[in-house]
Amino acid sequence: MDTKKLTLAAVVAGVAVAVVPWLLPTGPSAGLDAARFLESGSLAWGALVVFAGGLLTAMTPCVYPLIPITVSVFGARKAEGRGRSLALTTSYIVGMGVVFSALGILAAKTGQAFGSMLGSPAVVMGLALFLLLLASSMFGAFELALPSSMQTKLSNVGGAGLAGAFVMGSVSGFLAAPCTGPVLTGLLAFVAKSANTTLGATLLFIYALGIGVPFFLIGVFTVRLPRGGVWMEWVKSVLGIMLVALAFSYLKDAFPWARDTVKALGAQVGQVPGAVIAAVLVTVGVLLGAVHRSFKDGARDFGFKAFGVALVVGALVVRGGALDARPTGELWVRMGLQQRPVAPSWQWHHVMPAKTATFDASQFEQVLAAAKQEGRPVLIDFFADWCAACKELDRLTYPSTEVISQAQDSRFLTIKIDATNSEDHLDALMEKLGVEGLPTVAFVNPDGTVLTKPRVTGFLEPVPFAAEMQKVVLQ
To answer: What's the rounded mean pLDDT across residues 308-317?
Structure first.
């Protein structure tokens, strides 16, 4: 590859890693609630809102990395007709819909939050292994294909490749769960109250169809690109790196020690310096050969590519940790290069359960009783480490001046409850308070009454969030 072109590509990649995460959409907001239409009997409008919520979910970080990967695996492998692409893409979307229907009905029946399975290390390790195997295929370790005997049987009924597309769609259903947001929160509450499993499964399938729209459009109507050429190997390398980073992201959230390490690293470097460090690491990694070199071209190229890939993946991990950190890094403060901000910051008065501890329901009740005695309103944030919208609230909403001022002026007592791992006492509390999905921000007014309205069930911008807080005090 020409040196000038390689340098330009490396710089562009570095800038993209630094800037793009700040530009990504947040997905469905707290105002997109299908339940109010469904409860009033407007099934058509409710289904339309569910579909729209799925379409917005497809634009979130949980889903969009899988779009080019899917096209690469099922669209660009063979010069097949549009009809064949339609069948593969449809099989993919059906697989996603089956998983969403099953997970949604399970959540509605058991009272656990949708996506809570991602708190299980076994489930996360299975997904991560699948992603790493797919990444290995992108790096040329092997070709994704079913055994020849199975391919022959499936070909006889016109189904070769459909099973693989269905499996990919099923895995995507799991990966999309952290970004489901408020659409499924209200929908699952409706399913649980109505006890209509068939209707619930149908609506959840419609939600998956909304997520599948970009896959359908790209897989069926995209201009078919030639298979040959070195550039295709570069594209596969980029996709492989994305898959490895995605696998590490899920593994990080499943294991507390890894999650805490990344959080600590982000806190040390800070938000903006972390973005700059990640950009530099990506630039160096691409220059070393993360993309243009091949693992098959001898030990020298293998070593350079492996080191380059490691740098880029490490940069993406650093970028993710810094994205949720404060603007000022602790490391630079200790070195005298930055000063701590003097403006007020958001504070959690109680975080439950504490690290390595189990949830204590009696402690929670004591905190509420003390707040009632003092005449203070309470904000209760239910979150999980796998929940994307939860992180957006922490990063964008709570640190804002509007929310901090409202909390201080109204003397809010703030409680953050970690629902990453399912526990009996915690599940009982969530069922008691009507928490159907994450994030959920519940409020208690000064006389100790738990309010059903206002309530936040998804990401909400600072100004409307502060307005919801003010409603608690005025009741």
So the answer is: 92
User: Is-contact 439 389, C-beta < 8 A?
Assistant: yes
Cβ neighbours around 245 below 10 Å, total? 21
> Contact at 8 Å (CB) between 170 and 123?
no
pLDDT of residue 33: 57
Q: Which position has the higher pLDDT, 260 or 454?
A: 454
Are the C-beta atoms of residues 287 and 280 closer than 8 Å to each other? no
pTM: 0.68
Distance of CA 253 to the CA centre of its chain: 11
Neighbours of 402 (CB within 10 A): 16
Two tokens at 188?
Answer: 């699952």
Closest CA to 430 of 86, 189, 141: 189
According to DSSP, the β-strands at 440-444 and 450-456 are: antiparallel
CA atoms within 13 A on the CB side of 11: 6
Terminal CA-CA length for the chain: 67
Tokens of 407: 């909390």
d(CA 203, CA 225): 36
Q: 294 — phi, psi (to 5°)?
A: -125, 145
Greatest pairwise CA separation for the chain in angstroms: 74
Between CA 475 and CA 473 the distance in angstroms is 6
Helices 230-254 and 256-269, interaxial angle, to 10°?
Answer: 110
C-alpha pair distances (Å), 58 with each of 209, 258, 448: 10, 27, 39
What tokens appear for 322 in the block? 């810094």
DSSP classification of residue 85? H
